[in-house]
From TrEMBL, chains A, B:
It is found in: Cytoplasm. It comes from Janibacter indicus. Catalyzes two activities which are involved in the cyclic version of arginine biosynthesis: the synthesis of N-acetylglutamate from glutamate and acetyl-CoA as the acetyl donor, and of ornithine by transacetylation between N(2)-acetylornithine and glutamate. This is Arginine biosynthesis bifunctional protein ArgJ. It comes from the Bacteria. Pathway: Amino-acid biosynthesis; L-arginine biosynthesis; L-ornithine and N-acetyl-L-glutamate from L-glutamate and N(2)-acetyl-L-ornithine (cyclic): step 1/1; Amino-acid biosynthesis; L-arginine biosynthesis; N(2)-acetyl-L-ornithine from L-glutamate: step 1/4. Belongs to the ArgJ family.
Length: 383, 383
């Protein structure tokens, strides 16, 4: 149930001393082949961290032999020195593994605007390279945690091949400063092009549809690596389906562990005129602070849902909108529906359905409520 | 210092029993002329409340004799009955004043999705009509409060004429569910067209540039009325300048009293390539929950400012961005600048300057921090 579930991968997680807490903070996942296909999706934030710039370039050829990840520092907004540090990390990792630095992906997460303590980091990389095992996926998942309370791993097993993965953070592909980092591995025999297509399609409907607080990190990276070690050749469709299963599992875990959240909110927009319309509406609700506060207060405040929908350019008639919260249709035809006191918001999981009556598309986005604990965690994060 | 500062206006505020608190909840402002020019700017939310639909229509002819405002209920998402109730309120007000219902503007604020108690409301309108005075502006300002802690009034006095105003709520022309309602009066001799132009120009750089929590209400209304009672004819420019002064004063008061806020944050985007660029950047910072939590925690977290700027499509080079917080340039050329511990965030007012190095435009947007109290107020608002 991790990045080392598929054959051909070894991983490790060690404590390098980057985190004040003394918890593990350097992870390594190595692809022992025979294939070294790799693909990635990165943050769209124009202020991108040095490791994103490096990794984007290193993956142009569709190959990666390893990924080195550190928590305890994002290496973002660190200028030329920051990029040199990422480069040095890749070089050091490559040397320890006997591969080319250009085939080492680098991921970092933590505070922005501070240089990494390089001697600690390189010592950690050396230690990680020395402790790689085919059972190291769990240790790697633990070493990439920041504000996460639990490590997040997943796997999808098929006939003779599998997909594994790990994740940290909370948000969408553009999440909270608690950067989202994801590594997905597979031992399927595939091509770099199919791996890239599978990852993009899987990401589009999983990590792109979770939105904890609407904020976009400088470091988000979702990396996929294929070893071919199973000897089983799969179609693009089979691969996509399995990668999607792992990504969906990890995405749901991210929402379930979002900073300070008390509720996980599934927003389902029904009968949208297009997928784009449905997504715009779902996101507008997911990013509405007033609605998110109401759910924290166990208040089925459908007026705030309608007010959010009204800010979009989606096709809908205000007088036809229906809203159900946990199965109770509190808003019918744009007005008062069933008795709102019937809505039970005690459970962590909340389902909000908005029927636009405008077409056939349905889109689901997951978010969290806005709580005292969210404010506390994010006002105290760096101080 | 209120809507009755200019000559030609009477106002009143009474308790009709719409609010559980027993505080004043119905306000009336009447223009006794000789002119009855009026103009308004409304929410752009497509889910608009019945009073907005009514008032938009009633102002097509550029004339209003009176505005009746109630707190204690927004009359939004209330269907055909809600619109009939707004119509009945206008009719009742018109009868009490001896004017045409089509010249009565209606504003409502409070919870969405509940019908107004019409017998209480009409009794309140009768009482308000009977207690109109030329000194009633303060009472009217008190009667439109919802989560406001203080009434908000302002005036700008010129040679022989003046502009007055009142406001409630917190946000921008698209604010929190705590709808923004504003009434601006003047005794200048002007035209309906000049009044409309002055209001739009003043609003664009005042109410449109405050953004407490990025949420857009269904009821926001900014109404201007001109009586001509001063006998002083003014140019469009003179009028715009004075209306802008009153709107800026009221806007600053709204931010200063935003729900649960501990800091008022002035975001100044400098050297933008265009006004639109500057506005997009300023808004992206104003709506970034992580940044707003950091300010609450007195943490000069400039990384979150850069992460917000990076989500925009404005013209800038990441490596040229400068950020100053309360005069300390904590980020220089996209990287670490002066020592962040030099930043003092004890005072309520915070100034964040972002230099894009991309042009000559400067845009200022005001927002608030995101606090425990914001979450508390907005999770407990309806329960």
């Amino acid at each position: 149930m991790s990045t080392t579930t598929p054959a051909g991968f070894r991983a490790a997680g060690v404590t390098a001393g980057l985190k004040a807490s003394g918890r593990p903070d350097v992870a390594l996942v190595v692809n022992d082949g025979p294939d070294r296909h790799a693909a990635a999706v990165f943050t769209t934030n124009r202020v991108e961290a040095a490791p994103v710039t490096w990794s984007r370039q290193s993956l142009v050829d569709g190959r990666a032999d390893a990924v080195v990840l550190n928590s305890g520092g994002a290496n973002a907004c660190t200028g030329a020195q920051g990029f040199q540090d990422t480069h040095a990390t890749a070089e050091h990792t490559a040397e320890a593994l006997g591969v080319s630095a250009g085939d080492v992906v680098v991921c970092s997460t933590g505070l922005i605007g501070e240089l990494l303590p390089m001697s600690k980091l390189t010592a950690g990389v050396t230690a990680a390279a020395g402790s790689l095992t085919a059972e190291g996926g769990a240790a790697a998942a633990e070493a990439i945690m920041t504000t996460d309370t639990v490590p997040k791993t997943a796997a999808a097993t098929r006939d003779g091949w599998s997909v594994g993965g790990m994740a940290k953070g909370a948000g969408m592909l553009a999440p909270a400063l608690a950067t989202m980092l994801v590594v997905v591995t597979t031992d399927a025999v595939t091509s770099a092009a199919d791996l890239d297509a599978a990852l993009r399609e899987a990401t589009r409907t999983t990590f792109d549809r979770i939105d904890s607080d609407g904020c976009m990190s400088t470091n988000d990276t979702v990396l996929a690596m294929a070893s071919g070690a199973s000897g089983t050749t799969v179609s693009r469709e089979e691969l996509t389906e399995a990668v999607r299963e792992v990504c969906a599992d990890l995405a749901r875990q991210l929402i379930g562990d979002a900073e300070g959240a008390h509720h996980d909110i599934e927003i389902v927009v029904q009968r949208a005129a297009s997928e784009a319309d449905g997504l715009e509406v779902a996101r507008s609700i997911a990013r509405n602070n007033l609605f998110k506060c109401a759910i924290f207060g166990k208040d089925p405040n459908w007026g705030r849902v309608l007010a959010a929908v009204g800010t979009t350019s989606a096709v809908f008639e205000p007088a036809r909108l229906d809203v159900s919260i946990n199965g109770v249709q509190v808003c019918r035809a744009g007005g008062v529906g069933e008795d709102r006191t019937l809505v039970d918001l005690e459970a962590r999981e909340v389902r909000v359905e908005v029927d636009l009556h405008a077409g056939d598309d349905e889109v689901t986005v997951w978010t969290n409520d806005l709580t005292h604990d969210y404010v506390h965690e994010n006002s105290a994060y760096s101080t």
